[in-house]
Write a sequence for this structure.
């Protein structure tokens, strides 16, 4: 590891500790100032602490390898799994593990259970950390994109993707647009990026599952998703691949500010020509610890997860940008949320076009 | 249909077989290595993690394995871990993993498989699925990467407008079609356009080039479909590209070594005009180390005419060198966990820095792409600008199947040495003779030919034939393989050992015959497989080499390439190598006679 990367990591750890302390202050203030948007969220001190034998960690959070469960909980195994895979398994499950995931997926599970007549399964902690969605693009592509779209947005990207970059003012050698997001049939973050893209296509106005079936949306959606590259057999996120292989492979990635912060910090000069752009409408990804109804997660685990998240670029609170990306242009105010059923409908449409 | 698509590929095979004794019976694991050596490693009581890795990274991987094995990281619980690597061509390993891996012949089945490209993993899974078997290859991080490029000597690239002009497969097609050759670009002295490509069933470069040229034919960068392959213009594009190939091969090293040797003589520009290779090969070539391996005392000397990397304008592919931890029944959970620790070790920045030293781009994004990936070395770190999507598995398999028909047809004269020494035991104390093994290998090799190939059989020894050519007898004339296969198998089985080995006479006579019957649109070549050394009144090696070399140089040359196989430990590899190099071909080492099947396969991959 380069000296620069080591210094960056140590700085992040120190800042993380400070931010965690600050987060407690914010959390208390937030809880008292506004109602939680999720009826299943609960104060971690209100219900009995669960004694899990297994903790499931959503792989897309990028913290699972950093959690030393043995130091926190005795006799507990950690299972890393794509968030959507876990969610699919919980829709019909009779019991639940302790699950570190994005709040959105808990909503998806509970919505599906409700529609099938099953009993509610989960309750969640307050958000342990948050991260807004952003766009990352190579500098030269970002310049063309902001020039053509103003501001850069998924709706515009989907429209431009029908033609080569040259038609938008880019270089002929760039070929076609190559946007990417994590697959929504595996990643809760990918699902949210997809939802954000759809919301942008509808001008930020509320939309329903029925709107996803209009010819206009279907056409735009097909063009956007068809432009996305595939990497069968290759592990790693799209942003990692973008930096590994350069602009020839991926031009634009929609992801969390957290991932952008961490990956670009690690990449150093290899990521030096990548621009982080705000994406619209604003979407805030919240990480929670979900537990079986009537129980809460051990405080030690919650604290460890929170610290791990902040170390890899998540915000301890919406107002505080990550230490790894202090000048982040991300938008956090006015963030929109999505109904679990709508997300599931969107995912099904995606599976059809892919 | 292109009338040029069915062309004769004139190949005379001169095979003399000597099976040397080869004792295998040591306490430690000894297995054949495709780089030519044997590997002896003692894992003790450690968890063994066997790796099968493609040849370009075998030295690096062995170094890393040695370091890992001696480190504290090589521990899982209370057990040590022992990683050991053997070289396996990507395509060859893919074939073994999707069929049967015979450990006696091929070495241990791997826990980690690292082909040059993740695409090979898809091919394995597809072939297994077609047999109703579960997939064994999952996902893996890139260990190191290098894009496929078209290598050209700098003067030739400049004649095409490089570096200002964008060049790609469509330009290669035009060059292949042109009857004027390089004269159309003001250089008649360079002769016709000649292309080097490797066999896509064995070589990742060959497979990537095949994918790239097909994408170029349809004007796409992703989503290559079976319907695309069915288009007549796509088929024609492929056949015309293949028509310019000088020969194939299981590795690009043959082209690179021959290019370098010709560069020393000032004849590089008449050997091959361009070759589809990986970017890393250009870095190594321009350093004066064309095969990436420095022999003791060897001092690298940069070439007179460096190669430049042309990143095809239609797009290209990366070789991403994944380390697949196989999900196979022979891999235990313990081995899987141990393998994950090794994979983590080789991804560390300090180990990824070593990747750069070899001329690859590091897989770990924490390691910047710096020297030697630079314009000074003929490569461009800002390229490529467009990459191609790896086709779906069923399209990949179809591409490979179609290539067997689109490639140049082979015209083979199988010439088998039936001298007295061929009756010696292949292994001391056993009854199987050298000729027995040779016959088995030759019969097995017949299955490698395609329906459009023609094969015949000639045997040779001293005083075996008629007065006008006492050294040989034509047993089966050259005919389409569909007609001659059964006769060939029958006659080969009936061969018996006789007298001496007139190697130089038969090599010269066969060479002269192919020159006399030279087909300018075909690959003309001999394969000489011999167990020993020349045993004949004609002992003029220098004269033979001079005639072979003179015939291979100059823009008007009619190159007949002589590929040689040194069979058994008594074979004169040094002389056979000189014969091969005189004609810009390659010598193969089969000093272990039990490797003859594998070596035969590698030789046939040149056609």
């Amino acid at each position: 590891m380069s000296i620069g990367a080591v210094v960056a990591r140590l700085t992040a750890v120190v800042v993380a500790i400070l931010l965690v302390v600050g987060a407690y202050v914010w959390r208390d203030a937030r809880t008292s100032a506004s109602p939680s948007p999720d009826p299943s969220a609960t104060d971690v001190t209100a219900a009995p602490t669960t004694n899990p034998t297994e903790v499931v960690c959503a792989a897309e959070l990028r913290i699972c390898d950093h959690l030393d469960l043995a130091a926190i909980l005795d006799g507990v195994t950690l299972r890393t799994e794509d968030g959507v895979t876990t969610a699919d398994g919980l829709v019909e499950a009779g019991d639940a593990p302790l699950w570190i995931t994005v709040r959105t997926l808990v909503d998806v599970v509970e919505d599906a259970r409700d529609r099938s007549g099953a009993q509610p399964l989960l309750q969640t902690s307050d958000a342990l950390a948050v991260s807004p969605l952003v766009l990352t693009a190579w500098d030269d592509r970002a310049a063309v994109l902001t020039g053509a779209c103003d501001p850069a947005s998924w709706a515009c990207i989907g429209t431009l993707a029908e033609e080569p970059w040259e038609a938008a003012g880019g270089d002929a050698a760039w070929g076609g647009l190559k946007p990417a997001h994590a697959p929504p049939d595996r990643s809760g973050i990918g699902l949210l990026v997809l939802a954000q893209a759809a919301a942008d296509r509808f001008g930020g106005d509320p939309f329903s599952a029925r709107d996803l079936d209009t010819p206009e949306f279907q056409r735009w959606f097909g063009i956007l998703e068809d432009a996305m590259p595939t990497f069968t057999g290759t592990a790693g996120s799209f942003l990692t691949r973008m930096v590994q292989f350069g602009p020839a492979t991926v031009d634009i990635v929609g992801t969390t500010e957290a991932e952008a912060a961490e990956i670009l910090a690690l990449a150093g000069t290899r990521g030096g020509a990548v621009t982080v752009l705000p994406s619209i409408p604003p979407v805030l990804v919240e990480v929670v610890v979900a537990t079986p109804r009537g129980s809460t997660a051990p405080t030690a685990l919650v604290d460890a997860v929170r610290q791990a998240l902040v170390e890899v670029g998540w915000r301890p609170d919406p107002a505080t940008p990550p230490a790894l990306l202090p000048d982040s242009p991300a938008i956090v105010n006015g963030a929109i949320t999505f109904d679990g059923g709508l997300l599931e409908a969107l995912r099904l449409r995606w599976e059809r076009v892919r | 249909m292109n009338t040029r698509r069915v062309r004769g590929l004139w190949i005379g095979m001169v095979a003399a077989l000597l099976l040397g004794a080869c004792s295998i019976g040591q306490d430690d694991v000894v297995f054949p290595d495709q780089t030519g050596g044997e590997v002896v490693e003692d894992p003790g009581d450690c968890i063994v993690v066997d790796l099968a890795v493609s040849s370009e990274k075998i030295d690096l991987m062995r170094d890393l394995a040695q370091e890992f094995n001696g480190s504290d990281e090589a521990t899982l619980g209370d057990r040590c871990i022992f990683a050991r690597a053997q070289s396996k061509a990507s395509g060859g390993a893919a074939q073994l993993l999707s069929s049967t891996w015979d450990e006696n012949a091929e070495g241990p089945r791997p826990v980690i498989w690292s082909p040059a490209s993740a695409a090979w993993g898809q091919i394995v899974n597809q072939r297994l699925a077609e047999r109703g078997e579960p997939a064994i290859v999952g996902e893996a991080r890139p260990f190191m990467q290098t894009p496929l490029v078209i290598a050209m000597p700098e003067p030739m690239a400049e004649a095409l407008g490089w570096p200002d002009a964008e060049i790609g497969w469509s330009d290669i097609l035009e060059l292949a079609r042109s009857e004027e050759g390089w004269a159309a670009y003001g250089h008649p002295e360079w002769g016709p356009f000649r292309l080097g490509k490797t066999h896509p069933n064995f070589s990742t470069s060959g497979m990537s080039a095949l994918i790239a040229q097909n994408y170029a034919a349809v004007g796409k960068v992703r989503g290559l479909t079976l319907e695309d392959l069915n288009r007549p213009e796509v088929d024609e594009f492929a056949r015309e590209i293949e028509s310019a190939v000088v020969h194939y091969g299981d590795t690009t090293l043959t082209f690179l070594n021959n290019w370098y040797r010709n560069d020393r003589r000032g004849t590089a520009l008449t050997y091959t005009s361009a070759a589809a290779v990986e970017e890393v090969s250009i870095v190594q070539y321009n350093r004066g180390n064309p095969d990436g391996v420095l022999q003791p005392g060897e001092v690298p000397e940069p070439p007179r005419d460096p190669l430049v990397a042309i990143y095809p304008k239609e797009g290209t592919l990366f070789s991403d060198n994944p380390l697949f931890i196989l999900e196979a029944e022979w891999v235990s959970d313990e081995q899987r966990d141990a393998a994950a620790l090794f994979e983590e070790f080789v991804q560390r920045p300090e180990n990824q820095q070593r990747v750069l030293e070899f001329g690859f781009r590091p897989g770990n994004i924490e390691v910047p792409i710096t020297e030697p990936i630079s314009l000074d070395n003929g490569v461009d770190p800002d390229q490529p600008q467009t990459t191609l999507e790896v086709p779906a598995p069923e399209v990949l398999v179809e591409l490979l199947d179609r290539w067997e028909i689109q490639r140049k047809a082979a015209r083979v004269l199988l010439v088998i040495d039936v001298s007295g020494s061929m009756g010696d035991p292949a292994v001391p104390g056993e009854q199987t003779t050298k000729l027995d093994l040779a016959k088995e290998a030759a019969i097995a090799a017949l299955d490698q030919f395609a329906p459009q190939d023609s094969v015949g059989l000639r045997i040779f020894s001293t005083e075996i034939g008629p007065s006008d050519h006492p050294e040989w007898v034509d047993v089966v004339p050259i005919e389409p393989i569909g007609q001659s296969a059964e006769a060939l198998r029958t006659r080969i089985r009936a061969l018996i050992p006789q007298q001496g080995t007139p190697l130089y006479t038969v090599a010269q006579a066969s060479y002269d015959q192919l020159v006399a019957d030279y087909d300018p649109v075909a690959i003309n070549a001999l394969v000489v497989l011999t167990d020993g050394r020349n045993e004949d009144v004609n002992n003029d090696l220098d004269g033979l080499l001079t005639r072979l070399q003179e015939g291979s140089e100059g823009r008007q040359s009619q190159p007949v390439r002589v590929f040689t196989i040194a069979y058994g430990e008594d074979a004169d590899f040094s002389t056979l190598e000189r014969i091969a190099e005189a004609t810009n071909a390659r010598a193969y080492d089969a000093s272990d006679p039990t490797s003859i099947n594998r070596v035969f396969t590698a030789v046939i991959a040149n056609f």
